[in-house]
Amino acid sequence: MAARAKWLLAAAVVAGLIGLSFLAAFDGREHSELARFLGRFHPLSVHLPIALILLVPLLELAGRRESRAHLRHTAAFVLLLATICALASVALGWIHAWSGGFGGPLVASHYRAGLLLAAACVAALGCRAWLGPRKTYAALLVAVVALMGWTSHLGGSLTHGQTYLTRFMPARLRAALAIPAAPTSLAPPGSFYAVRIQPIFEAHCVTCHNPNQRKGELVLDSYENAIKGGEHGAVVRAGDFRQSELFTRITLPRDDKHFMPSEGKPPLKPVDIKLIELWIAAGASGTTPVGAIANAPVSPPPPRLVALAPDYRPRAAMIAALSNPAGVQLAPRSQVFTDGLILRTAADPSHCDDAALARLAPLADLIVDAELARTAVTDAGAKTIAGWPNLRVLDLTRTRVTGRGVSALSALRKLESLNLTETEATEASIAALRREPALKHVYSFNLKTAGSLNPLVP
Amino acid sequence: MSHPAPGDPDPCPDHGGEGPTVYDLPVPRELREEWRRLETRRQFLGRTGKVLGWAGLSALLGERLLAGLAEPAGAPANFRRAPHFAPTAKRCIYLFMSGGPPQMDLWDYKPGLADRFDQDIPASVRGAQVLTSMTAAQSRLPVAPSPWKFQQQGKCGRWVSELLPWTGKVVDELAIIHSLNTDAINHEPATLQMNTGNMVVGKPSMGSWLGYGLGSMNENLPTFVVLNSRLVPGAGNFPITPRLWGSGFLPSQFAGVALRSQGEPVLYLNDPAGLTRDARRELVESVNRLNAITYAETADPETQARISQYEMAFHMQTAVPELTNLQDEPAATWDLYGAEAKEPGTFAYNCLLSRRMAERGVRFTQIYQRGWDMHTNAVPNTPKMCAATDRGCYALITDLKRRGLLDSTLVVWGGEFGRTVYSQGGLTRENFGRDHHPRCFTSWMAGGGVKPGISHGATDDYCYNIVRDPVHVRDFNATLLHLLGIDHEHLTFKFQGLDQKLTGVEHANVVEGLLG
């Protein structure tokens, strides 16, 4: 390709990218799924030109020494690479912003800064090729690095919020730079506000409504500030969510210019809106306990803080090997890896016997719930089960387990529910077991030893 | 559409000895061409994709599609269908009172109405409510107070109608919801909305969603079984259709399997005389091999559904007779359910069967009882319907509880809507009728992590509008899924460009007040 054609191409790409931003504005709506997929590569790939751009002045400086003059040749090549990568990143960035539902001045500034950076790279490349590495070129390089820093900062603000640099700044440095102190809320830790509402504000609002940004003079970093309101006065009217501006703003149509969160940031989830509605309706208190507001919607409960069993993943292969679809099945209790396993036998209970239980020894500590109703398990099996340290629920309905087997189960310190329906367990053995503090339920309907007139089919 | 003319040459050419293909079926040419076009598109998307080295990706995506819930990263292959969080209910039994039971005659006690007999309901109460075509033309809407007495039952002191003497005994186990409401005013859309979350035909039923999301606990029985109870003579039996337990756009193997109420529970399940079990096994395997070839050619998920249903039928040949053989039930069972439960097809029999299915790992059992549609003759028919169902409900709850199954089994009772407080047709002290009422109706849940002995929500003095804590069908279904360990926002299936959910696109909330 002739040199001229190359420059024409580069200029055309830059012009095209400028044109794109006029053709399709960032309207805060999501577009084409394929584009969204591609766009996601922008935050990933954008770090490549950053590194390359930083390398160029380093190479140029280092190459000033005669012995390292070859580095200056490398610089030309690295600058070319950096320019290509920058152009690609801007293109991906446009796809990301257009398709990903971004909008507002921040994303527009980021895009413009990126474009300017790419154009500056092209200019630097051209300057170096025609004029050689002189003062104009040096000035251009400084501009490129500065632009890169500014663009990166805007990008960082987009992803992490506009306070991401100062948020965890040490108090002393904060004071030295005259940055307001980090907020502390007076709402007590167990209150509805602290548990259900403040986290919503933190996730969606404080990137703009914080002591540094104070958009609309509203700060949502604490209960006191939320109640204080913004430039038009209070945004929360206790007891009346319809008259509370905070509530109306988050429930406007998404394309309304007063809609919050603004600038195309993700809107609040329906559950969050409902929580805010309930909180305001109940008086917008900072002290009402979390349990006092009835019918507050629940999101799925957070992962258990207490693990019921060790993570099952390291033993995945063993679990697969010991799970036989026709007989013993081992299923996870949930997608939480430390919720343990359920031992299921319903498909073919008669094939599950004492020997089958003994084979599960390597997984004993993972089994939290054992469904062994109508299996061939006997007292020997009960002794095996007594060695499963994390067992909480055990169903032995209609097995041949007797009082002796039941007595052995007292070793299960965590057992909460035991089902002995239609077994040969004795009242005495059950009475002894009931003294276990963890055991909440023992079911002993229709025991065979209770002189029942209901003999069972063997 | 042109059918092959009688004079056409050989309708089944043998392709030079290679045998006929699906294109040689005696179907109209247009249909065959349509099939060919579809096949080409599938080939392009499926097979070509694989040739280009996307095999890994498309296989992965396919598995994910079938898995329903997101696969926990790093989990073994057979661990795909785990609930989002540890559930309180492992299974659900849904007692569907088809037709719409009268809430003010059974559960929603309104003593103040006794003085308003034959008075018109105030316009302020009715508001802008659109009535059905059955009462819209009535010149008057006279209040028909419940002619039956109520008494306080259980430790919780809940008011229960004298028509439900048995269920009243287990009221301490129930969470009674007085504020359920629906969008539909006619049976078909209302039953569809309760069961599929949408009034429009074609969405999967709740049982299908559960099978798709959570998989099977016993591969020898369906994950979703439907039991239709026999009719109550004289009651208004509005028909129901299998689309209430259909799988919609989910793969067909997740559709509910309806057991028959008379004769063989499943038709043609038993082998004909002379056919051995091994021969049957061989037959099923051969058919499935042929279907596997078809699947490789067409990649139609319905072929896979066919394969899995042949397997299921084979397993059910032994599992269903064992399930329905009640010889091993102790005498205590019959004392509890009553002699009626020995008669297949009765509601009590179905309740007993649902308990046996709960023990055998059926995820979702739905019992339909038709006959609650009391447009006329509410006075003779309401007691009849209660008599047919009351003891079964009581026995099921009691039986599950004494056998230690109630903790992990969610029992749901309810219809598609309620009934009007005003009379349809003439009102006398001896008789009246009640029309459909979607604005408020009563259902209950029990077991499986539900808070026992409570009531939720309240209606106004006329049992016409909700005054506290409304529960929409969406909220009701979201709560049901929550109890089974599913976040309703995340059990989805991509269809027609939308991530479809049981709870639809409108906001649905889990009703926290119902959780134990």
Describe this structure in words.
The complex is a heterodimer of chains A (458) and B (516). With 458 residues, chain A is mainly α. Chain A is built from 17 helices and six strands. Chain A has a six-stranded mixed beta sheet with strand order 1-2-3-4-5-6, covered by helices on one side. The longest helix of chain A is centred in the N-terminal third of the chain and has 30 residues, at 70-99. The termini of chain A are far apart. The relative contact order of chain A is 0.05. With 516 residues, chain B is an alpha/beta fold. Chain B has helices at residues 29-67, 103-106, 123-126, 187-196, 206-214, 277-298, 301-324, 331-337, 347-359, 378-402, 473-483, and strands at 91-97, 150-153, 158-161, 174-181, 224-228, 257-259, 364-369, 409-414, 418-423, 434-437, 441-446, 454-456, 458-459, 466-468, 471-472, 493-495, 498-500. In chain B, strands 1, 4, 5, 6, 7, 8, 11, 12 and 15 form a nine-stranded mixed beta sheet that branches. Chain B has a two-stranded antiparallel ribbon with strand order 2-3. In chain B, strands 9-10 form a two-stranded antiparallel ribbon. In chain B, helix 6 (277-298) runs antiparallel to helix 7 and helix 9 (347-359) packs parallel to helix 10. Classes of the chains: A mainly alpha (458), B alpha/beta (516).
